[in-house]
Design brief:
about 270 residues, about 0% strand, 11 helices, single chain, mainly alpha, globular
């Protein structure tokens, strides 16, 4: 349970920083349904989807490979982290990338981009089935079965520290860009992990602003995957507007439970 308290502390810290530098509970571009999507989506992930997937994956492993339980428990911590980066973070990069290039998957992911603002509130803002079918969660369950439980907890805390920082309305990376002495550090950081600049570009409303890059910057913990696979765009700036370009409005229930709940209105989308 310790790692869960650490995650909660990280969230609260960024929430307070957002409140200090602007607004947290009431964004200027927020609508009533945003709160429902964020609260229900987050609770579903932690109470239902994530436990179900992790335990189901471990159960399937126990049935298929009963002799491999905990086989990697005593192996190097560095090996554990390497496996998690590949089978969790890199796989999430490809799942995220696929979700922006496939119409069906994008409708599972659209809730995340439907928010017209950046905030730690939107970190877990996704359709129920987006997480249920996410390959990286299933791989993580398998790795936990193989003995990476404690390493996964450590890894998850650090990953969520980066992800929450990248989604936060507080632009912590701006400090690196303002001081010339920090230029070498900024160059390394922005090509290694997701930052507010690189990730907010992914959430921008329109590519016409010269910053927005919703067809790239898919990385979650590591932005390095975007650099490696050719989807990176680094501008050291932030979009002025956020949201989904050219997509109709969807109420909170449709955002969270599509395709079980659909609107009868004609869809006009560009993903």
């Amino acid at each position: 349970m310790t790692y869960q308290y650490a995650i909660l502390a990280i969230f609260v810290t960024f929430a307070l920083l957002e409140a200090k530098h602007g607004k947290f509970f009431k964004k200027d571009t927020e609508v009533t349904s945003d709160g429902y999507v964020e609260l229900i989506g987050t609770l579903m992930l932690f109470i239902v989807t994530q436990p179900f997937v992790l335990f189901s994956s471990a159960f399937l492993m126990s049935q298929a490979f009963p002799d491999y339980a905990g086989v990697l428990a005593n192996s190097s911590f560095l090996i554990h982290i390497a496996l998690l980066l590949i089978f969790d973070d890199m796989m999430q990069y490809w799942w995220h990338r696929a979700s922006h290039n496939n119409r069906f998957l994008y409708f599972l992911h659209r809730a995340h981009h439907n928010a017209k603002y950046m905030s730690v509130r939107i970190v877990y803002r996704n359709n129920f089935f987006y997480y249920l079918f996410m390959p990286s969660l299933w791989f993580s369950g398998a790795l936990i079965y193989l003995g990476l439980g404690w390493s996964y907890a450590f890894y998850l805390v650090f990953k969520l520290l980066v992800i929450m920082g990248a989604h936060s309305e507080w632009k912590w990376d701006n400090v690196l860009y303002k001081h010339k002495a920090l230029a070498p550090l900024a160059w390394v950081v922005e090509r290694t992990i997701s930052t507010p600049s690189t990730h907010s570009a992914h959430h921008g409303l329109t590519m016409e602003d010269g910053v927005t890059h919703y067809k790239g910057n898919y990385g979650n913990l590591l932005f390095f995957w975007d650099v490696l696979f050719g989807t990176a765009k680094i501008t050291r700036r932030y979009p002025e507007k956020y949201g989904i370009e050219g997509m109709r409005k969807a109420e909170w229930a449709e955002q969270l439970f599509w395709p079980l709940i659909k609107s009868k209105k004609k869809t006009n989308t560009s993903v």
